[in-house]
Every structure is written in structure tokens, then in C-alpha cells.
């Protein structure tokens, strides 16, 4: 039973759809609301001081998102036992859970967590994460992919370091729909009721914008809202079967959906279940985002967390993670390591997209709070809430 | 030892229950009511403002989901009654020595969590499943699929809350005084008439209780709509969940929760008025 349950759940899911989890969390959200809170503490400026390496480290991350041997190796090398908690199933849910603590300056014991770009930006804006000491992070300085070094929400990576990169594009069933041609295939009336989109607003809206010839990295709020309207209409027409987290895995392997918006790493992970599941890079482009490690305020072992960040930016270490999770690695030099150990994997475009391919990738623009709220509201209304 | 004043004793005996109610019912309710009148966002912080606009705002925006919730819950309650009554009747009157075992079978699925059972329906009803082929053949799947349709959501709700209907029905049917029926037959009542004039009225408390126990959680349910439906089937519970967790719009979510509670309460009052309060407590209280 357990196997059946976990088989199709990868990184983003587990409790995404499991309402029970959400239910218990809504209490947390509710209490958060009761806390009132001043909000808007603003970015912290004090850098994490160097210290001694503690005997433990608490790392909160998404499910199925690491090779656990890396944690053991870290413990062996530095003597800090890593308590690795797979507690993040959804950026918003996680935020609802930790916000009340962070608002009081406590991290709830967490030293490190990984959240997606826009949530990282929100954490920084609210002053919930600590400024990193770059001199403690030589590997990050040296090996972080240049293209990821200056995101809009954290221009110099003062508060964050990417954990893994995620491409969002089209996942399709080769045996059912053949080769897709465009990101707009998702609106093809022939596929009515056989397509799904993501509840992750930036990916779904971003991909739809690309199909409309707009650039999600620079497009205006109106462009984004027009995309939401298009999605709304398709949904009302019954074109879109439903909106999913990455619980889409089951739908597409079983054939409930044939062509969907989905994440690259999942396509790789689903292929053993059904070799007809393929990932397609739309010619119009596709969205790219990263989950980013951040150290929350009040983290009991902040310096140790930095040491860990630095550790996973060692290409040898990162190669293990990349081989396991198969998302886009943010660390240079990993390909060279894998060429020696697993040459086939080193050629995988989903883990190591070529520069040419990355030219077609778009990172959704960093939205100011009022625009974010308006777009979020409208999008949630469309997807049913 | 000082003697307690006589009048204090009942209150002292009630104290644990009252404290429980105060902490786990009254206090959360107070907070929710308070939050529902707040203004602000996570960036500015929330502050109390007597903002009744939250209520009119959510009412105008989510009237569709509210109506849908009560519609789904109502249909599911009626279906559960239609399925549950004959079943409870059969177990109570014809169960014989198998009664306990049969009742156990009714409750048994509940030993697996609600969530897993609903997820299992996803597999049973997926597009390529034989179940769906049969339903299509019978003309019961007009959209050529079952998942992500209204039918699937209502069926899911009915299935999940059926035991809550059956158990009170069974309880009232099982303790039905057989001599009443014998008297009816002695007075030349037909079987049908005896059922309508004796059994049905005497099982009214079970019907009322079963309907309430089914309708109330069903109206606030969001799991079935999320797992078996699509955004076109989302109920008020889904909206509350997303307002709380995704949009961190606590005031709107709290206002919706209060509204849902008030609406359900109003319906119960009307229902009980119509059915008579003794029906709720049990006919024997008379």
C-alpha cells in the first residue's frame, strides 16, 4: 500500500492533494492570522558570524529531492548530524506553517530550507532569512552557474543559493498524441478533457503567455492577466481536466491526461513507469525556476547551515544529488564528474540543458506585492478558489 | 474540610466539559470571528477594523461555490438516505445473528483513512478503467469520463458519509418495538401501511440524526471535490483552504468559515423545527 502511494509522488506532492495535511495546516494558518504581526520586517543586513560547526543541522526540503548518502557523508566529514525533514510539499503551505514563528524571530528549529524563487523573494522582503557570509561559501562563489547568479529577487545571491533548477514545459504521452509542435497544443480541442495545468501560478501563466507571444520575464501585468483569462475560458469550456501539483504523475502514466504542463525532473522519474511519457521543450520557450536554500532568522545552527550549502556545491557531491533527482543542477563541473561515472546521464538534456536550449528558458518576473496579489487572486479564482 | 455550597456542585462537575468547550470551541470561534473582521495583508500585517465588507465581498465572489456546496451536500444526503435506509432496515430486521458482523462491515472501510479511500476511487474511476467502461455502456457517463465530473464528486461524498447515515438509522430501527407492528397487523394493516404508519414515524429520529450527520460534514467537505473533481466542482471548503493557505487572505477565509457555519446552523434550526425537536433527541424522551 505504502509503495503504491509513494510510487507516483515526487518532489512537489505528497500532501499537496492530501487534504488531511492541508486541514491540519489550516489551523496553523489560522493561528498565524491570530498572531496579527507587524509584517514587513525588511531584509536583514547583518551577516551570519563564523563559528564552530555544531553537532547537528536541521534541513527542511521537498520530498524525493536528495540522495540521502550525501547527508551521511556530510556527517562523517564535519561531525554534524543532519536531521533532514521532507516537510515542504507546497510553497504556500510551508509559508503558512512557518510564518508565525518567523514573525517572532524563531525558525522553529530549522536551520535551512529550500523554497522556490518567488517565495525566496518573499522571505527576503519580509526579513525572514539571514544574510549569508560569502567568505564561508567559496564553492558557491566558484561553482554556481553564472546564469543563476543574479535573480531579480536577490541580485547578488546575498540571501539564497539554488538547490535545484526546475524546467516547466510540456509532458506528453507519445503513444496518444504523437510529437507536440507547440506549447499551444494544450488548447487543441482534440485534447478536450485530456490536458491538465499546474497550480503553480508562474509556470502555468508563464507557459500560456509564451504561447501568446508574450515574455513572462518582462511582460506586463495585463499580459499575465490576459493569459489567465485564456486559461479561464479553456477551463470553462471543459478543455482543462484539472489543475494539479505534481500529482499529475498518476494521471499521465495511466492515460487520464495526455498532454500537460509539467516539470522536467518528473518526466525523467516517470519514464520507468511508462516509457511513453516524454518531456517536450516548446519552441516558444519554457519557464525555469530554482528552489533556493535559505537560512531562516533564529536558526540555531546558522553557520553549520552555511557549511552544508558550501558542501553541496562541491561538484563531486552535487553529482550524487543530480544523478538521484534529475532536475537541472545549478552547479558547474557536475557534468564532468558524471561523464566519468555515468556518461549516459551526463548527456541528458533535462539535467544539463545546452546553452542553446537555456536561451529559450524564461524566469517569471519578480512581481511587486500588489501585482502578485492581484494576479494570484485572479489565478486562484480561475483554478477554483 | 469546608463544605462546598450546594449550588456549586453541578458547576464543578460540569467544569471539565465547560473548559474543554471554552478552549476548543469558544476561543477558536472568537478568534475566527475577530479575524473575519480584520484588514490588511501579510506584508502590511493584519489589524482589527470591524470590516464587515469582508463578508459582502466573499458572498458576492463565492456565491457559486456556496450554493454548489449545499446542492452537493443535499443530493448526497438524499442519496445516502435512499441507500442507507433499506440497508439499515435489512440489518436491523433480517440481520439475525449476523447483525454485528454486518454492522462491522458498514464501519470497516472507515478504518482506512478517508483520504486513502478517496484516492482509491481515483484509481477505480480513471478513464481507462473497466468500471468506467461499464458506466459508459449504461449511459451513466455523459462526459465520456467519470473523474473530474460533478457525478464523481457527489458519489464520493455519498460514499464517504454513508456510515454516518446508516448507524443512527440502524440504532432507531433496531430498538423499534415489534409489538407495535404486531398491533398494526392485528388491525388489518397491510405490510406497506404498517411500514408507513409505524416503522417510518418511529425511525424519524434516526432519519433526522443521520441527515444532519451527513449533511453538515458534507457541506464543508473539500477533499472529494479536490481529488475526484476539478475546479468546476470546487466547493466552499476548497475556497476556504486556498484563501487560508495559498493566498494567506485570512480575513476572507475566516469570513467564509463563519458564513458556512451560520448557514449550516440556520438550516439545522429550520430542519429541526420542521421535524420537531423531539425527533432529534429521540422519541423516547417524551
Defining traits:
heterodimer; A: 385 residues; alpha/beta; ten-stranded mixed sheet; globular; disordered N terminus; B: 286 residues; mainly alpha; two-stranded antiparallel ribbon; 14 helices; 2 strands; 72% helix
Give a written overview of the molecule.
- The complex is a heterodimer of chains A (385) and B (286).
- Chain A has 17 helices and 10 strands.
- By secondary structure, chain A is of the alpha/beta class.
- In chain A, strands 1, 2, 3, 4, 5, 6, 7, 8, 9 and 10 form a 10-stranded mixed beta sheet that branches.
- Chain B has 14 helices and 2 strands, in the order αββααααααααααααα.
- In chain B, strands 1-2 form a two-stranded antiparallel ribbon.
- In chain B, strand 1 (38-41) and strand 2 form a beta hairpin.
- The model of chain B has no long low-confidence stretch (mean pLDDT 89).
- Chains A and B meet through helix 2, helix 4, strand 6, helix 10 and helix 17 of A and helix 1, strand 1, strand 2, helix 5 and helix 11 of B.
Reconstruct the topology from this structure.
The complex is a heterodimer of chains A (385) and B (286).
Chain A: H1 2-7, H2 19-34, E1 56-60, H3 69-78, E2 81-85, H4 91-103, E3 112-116, H5 117-125, H6 138-143, E4 161-173, H7 174-177, E5 195-198, H8 201-211, H9 221-236, E6 240-244, H10 248-254, E7 259-263, H11 264-270, E8 277-280, E9 286-294, H12 302-312, H13 315-325, H14 334-341, H15 343-346, H16 355-358, E10 361-362, H17 369-382
Parallel strand pairs in A: 1-2, 1-3, 5-6, 5-7, 9-10
Antiparallel strand pairs in A: 3-9, 4-7, 4-8, 4-9
Chain B: H1 8-35, E1 38-41, E2 45-48, H2 53-61, H3 63-94, H4 99-107, H5 114-124, H6 130-137, H7 150-174, H8 178-186, H9 191-202, H10 204-219, H11 223-228, H12 236-245, H13 250-275, H14 277-281
Antiparallel strand pairs in B: 1-2
Helix pairs in contact in B: 1-13, 2-13, 3-7, 3-10, 7-10, 8-9, 10-13, 12-13
Amino acid at each position: 500500500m505504502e509503495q503504491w502511494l509513494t510510487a507516483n509522488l515526487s518532489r512537489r506532492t505528497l500532501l499537496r492533494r492530501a487534504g488531511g495535511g492541508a486541514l491540519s495546516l489550516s489551523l496553523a494558518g489560522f493561528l498565524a492570522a491570530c498572531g496579527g504581526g507587524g509584517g514587513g520586517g525588511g531584509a536583514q543586513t547583518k551577516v551570519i558570524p563564523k563559528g564552530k560547526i555544531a553537532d547537528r543541522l536541521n534541513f527542511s526540503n521537498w520530498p524525493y529531492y536528495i540522495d540521502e548518502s550525501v547527508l551521511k557523508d556530510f556527517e562523517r566529514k564535519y561531525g554534524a548530524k543532519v536531521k533532514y525533514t521532507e516537510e515542504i510539499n507546497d510553497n504556500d503551505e510551508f509559508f503558512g506553517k512557518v510564518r508565525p514563528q518567523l514573525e517572532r524571530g524563531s525558525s522553529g528549529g530549522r536551520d535551512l530550507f529550500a523554497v522556490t524563487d518567488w517565495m525566496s523573494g518573499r522571505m527576503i522582503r519580509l526579513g525572514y532569512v539571514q544574510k549569508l557570509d560569502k567568505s564561508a561559501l567559496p564553492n558557491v562563489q566558484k561553482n554556481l552557474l553564472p546564469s543563476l547568479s543574479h535573480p531579480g529577487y536577490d541580485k547578488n545571491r546575498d540571501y539564497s543559493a539554488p538547490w535545484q533548477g526546475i524546467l516547466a514545459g510540456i509532458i506528453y504521452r507519445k503513444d496518444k498524441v504523437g510529437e507536440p509542435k507547440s506549447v499551444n497544443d494544450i488548447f487543441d480541442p482534440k485534447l478536450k478533457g485530456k490536458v491538465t495545468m499546474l497550480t503553480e501560478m508562474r509556470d502555468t501563466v508563464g507557459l500560456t503567455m509564451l504561447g501568446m507571444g508574450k515574455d513572462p520575464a518582462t511582460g506586463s501585468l495585463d499580459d499575465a492577466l490576459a493569459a489567465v483569462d485564456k486559461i479561464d475560458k479553456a477551463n470553462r469550456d471543459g478543455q482543462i481536466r484539472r489543475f494539479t501539483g505534481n500529482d499529475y504523475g498518476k494521471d499521465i502514466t495511466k492515460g487520464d491526461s495526455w498532454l500537460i504542463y509539467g516539470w522536467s525532473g518528473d518526466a525523467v522519474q516517470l519514464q520507468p513507469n511508462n516509457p511513453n511519457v516524454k518531456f517536450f521543450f516548446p519552441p516558444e520557450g519554457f519557464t525555469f525556476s530554482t528552489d533556493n536554500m535559505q537560512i531562516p532568522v533564529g536558526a540555531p545552527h546558522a553557520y553549520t547551515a552555511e557549511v552544508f550549502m558550501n558542501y553541496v556545491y562541491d561538484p563531486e557531491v552535487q553529482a550524487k544529488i543530480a544523478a538521484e533527482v534529475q532536475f537541472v543542477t545549478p552547479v558547474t563541473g557536475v557534468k564532468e564528474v558524471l561523464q566519468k561515472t555515468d556518461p549516459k546521464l551526463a548527456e541528458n538534456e533535462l539535467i544539463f540543458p545546452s546553452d542553446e536550449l537555456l536561451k529559450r528558458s524564461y524566469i517569471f518576473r519578480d512581481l511587486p506585492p500588489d501585482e502578485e496579489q492581484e494576479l494570484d487572486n485572479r489565478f486562484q479564482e480561475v483554478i477554483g478558489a | 474540610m469546608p463544605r462546598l455550597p450546594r449550588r456549586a456542585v453541578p458547576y464543578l462537575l460540569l467544569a471539565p466539559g465547560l473548559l474543554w468547550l471554552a478552549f476548543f470551541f469558544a476561543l477558536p470561534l472568537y478568534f475566527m470571528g475577530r479575524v473575519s473582521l480584520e484588514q490588511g495583508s501579510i506584508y502590511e500585517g493584519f489589524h482589527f477594523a470591524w470590516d464587515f465588507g469582508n463578508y459582502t465581498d466573499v458572498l458576492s465572489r463565492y456565491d457559486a461555490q456556496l450554493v454548489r456546496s449545499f446542492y452537493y451536500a443535499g443530493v448526497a444526503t438524499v442519496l445516502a438516505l435512499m441507500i442507507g435506509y433499506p440497508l439499515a432496515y435489512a440489518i436491523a430486521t433480517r440481520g439475525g445473528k449476523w447483525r454485528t458482523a454486518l454492522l462491522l462491515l458498514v464501519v470497516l472501510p472507515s478504518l482506512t483513512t478517508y483520504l486513502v479511500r478517496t484516492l482509491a476511487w481515483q484509481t477505480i474511476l480513471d478513464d481507462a478503467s473497466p468500471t468506467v467502461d461499464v458506466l459508459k455502456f449504461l449511459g451513466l457517463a455523459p462526459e465520456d469520463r467519470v473523474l473530474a465530473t460533478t457525478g464523481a464528486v457527489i458519489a464520493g461524498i455519498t460514499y464517504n458519509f454513508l456510515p454516518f447515515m446508516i448507524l443512527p438509522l440502524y440504532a432507531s430501527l433496531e430498538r423499534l418495538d415489534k409489538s407495535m407492528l404486531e398491533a398494526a397487523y392485528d388491525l388489518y394493516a397491510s405490510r406497506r401501511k404498517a411500514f408507513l404508519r409505524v416503522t417510518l414515524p418511529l425511525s424519524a429520529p434516526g432519519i433526522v440524526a443521520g441527515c444532519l450527520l451527513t449533511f453538515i460534514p458534507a457541506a464543508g467537505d473539500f477533499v472529494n471535490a479536490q481529488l475526484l473533481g476539478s475546479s468546476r466542482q470546487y466547493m466552499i471548503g476548497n475556497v476556504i483552504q486556498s484563501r487560508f493557505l495559498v493566498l494567506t487572505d485570512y480575513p476572507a477565509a475566516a469570513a467564509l468559515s463563519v458564513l458556512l457555519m451560520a448557514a449550516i446552523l440556520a438550516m439545522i434550526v429550520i430542519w429541526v423545527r420542521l421535524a420537531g425537536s423531539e425527533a432529534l433527541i429521540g422519541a423516547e424522551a417524551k
